[in-house]
Amino acid sequence: MLAYTYIERGRFALTEKNVPTLKDPRDALVRVTLGSICTSDLHIKHGSVPSAIPGITVGHEMVGIVEKTGAAVHTIKPGDRVAVNVETFCGECFFCRHGYVNNCTDPDGGWALGCRIDGGQAEYVRVPHADQGLTRIPDNVTDEQALFVGDILATGFWAARISEITPNDTVLIIGAGPTGICTLLCAMLRQPRRIIVCEKSKERARFVRSHYPTVDVVCPEECKAFTARHSTHGGADVVIEVAGADDTFQLAWQCARPNAIVTIVALYDRPQLLPLPDMYGKNLTFKTGGVDGCDCAEILSLIAQGKIDTTPLITHRFPLREIEEAYRIFENRLNGVIKVAVSTQTT
Ligand SMILES: [Zn+2]
Ligand SMILES: [Zn+2]
After folding, report:
1. Which residue in 25, 126, 133, 305 has a CA-CA distance of 20 to 30 Å to 213?
2. Per-residue b/e over 119-154, b at no fewer than 16 CB within 10 Å?
3. Of the bound ligands, which one is closest to the alpha carbon of residue 121?
4. Spacing, Cα 166 to ligand 2 middle (Å)
């Protein structure tokens, strides 16, 4: 089968590999129908994910059809159309039992797919702990509608959940990339008083304005003053930082009102400075990233009810054999790309 492979730092290539086989009774084999490319894939390519193993098939955003299941798999069966979770987790350890599945202590726990074990930018993928890692897609939800459920939408949903948004809140979301927009959609479900999105790219700001007209969009230079002016208590009640740059990290706590929750979803390339003397007395609560992707069934149900729609994010479509070009467009942010859908049908 075709598999997009992490060869060495700076290089991925489309290679020919054997179709994976089940290694454990809890495994399932999934025929990938649609996949996507994530910024985390680029982090692997650029060598900033130390746990990534050269030789693995990359890709952790996909949907497909269950081909085969091990004897200990009970929640799904061959023929089921499923969303694949970015995280594989046992469901039994201390962290899993508390919903902290990102920190599952199983050797395959956490983000393993497309990082430490073969992922889904391929025709087939083996999914460990399939009972936890696969969620059946409702019949009225298409593959494209379900494509982001297991990763960026799970992240947005988790970010909105842990940010404890209430109806009186002004919520500031920094960054309107794909994950920022997923976070926005999930924050909107909680119906806060106001949502402000801070985005420096004019193209992305325009995308948010045109698709979500009730949301305020500001540029970073105006963000602090705008947020203060449009909040009841001098700053945002909740700040969610999804952009991942040095200046956006600083902006996040500066735009927060005293006693606010600041949720850091972003993955940074380097350490960030927490200027504690400057924020002394502000009594902030910081929550940090690493999605706990255990809400996929609920997210799929919201999609089925028409309450979340991420299909506008899919701006480009490619077959798997042209994935090189899909990466070029995505990595260089060409042609207004937000997300690409990579079709893995061999026909
Ligand atoms: Zn991802
Ligand atoms: Zn676990």
Report:
1. 305
2. bbbbbbbbbbbbbbbbbbbeeebebbbbbbbbbbbb
3. 1
4. 30
Note the ligand closest to the C-alpha atom of 182: 1
| Tens digit of each residue's pLDDT (9 = 90 or more) over 213-264 | 999 999 999 999 999 999 999 999 999 999 999 999 999 999 999 999 999 9
How far apart are the CA of 59 and the centre of ligand 1, in A?
A: 8
Q: Chain-centre distance of CA 213, in angstroms? A: 23
Q: Which residues of 78-98 are buried (b: 16+ CB within 10 A; e: fewer)?
A: eebbbbbbbbbbbbebebbee
Residues in contact with 242: Cβ distance below 8 Å, sequence separation at least 6, in sequence order: 159, 173, 174, 175, 177, 179, 180, 183, 265, 266
- The CATH H-level superfamily of 155-288 is NAD(P)-binding Rossmann-like Domain (3.40.50.720)
- Tokens describing residue 257: 């009102």
Distance (angstroms) between ligand 1 centre and the Cα of 165 equals 24
Q: How far is the CA of 305 from the centre of ligand 1 (A)?
A: 25
Q: Which ligand is nearest to the CA of 95?
A: 2
When pLDDT is averaged across residues 325-330 and rounded to a whole number, the result is 98
DSSP classification of residue 251: H
Taking the centre of ligand 1 as the mean of its atom positions, its distance from the CA of residue 146, in whole angstroms, is 14
The answer regarding whether domain 2-151+292-343 maps to CATH 3.90.180.10 reads yes
CA 43 to centroid of ligand 1, rounded, Å: 10
Distance from Cα 169 to the centre of ligand 1, integer Å: 28
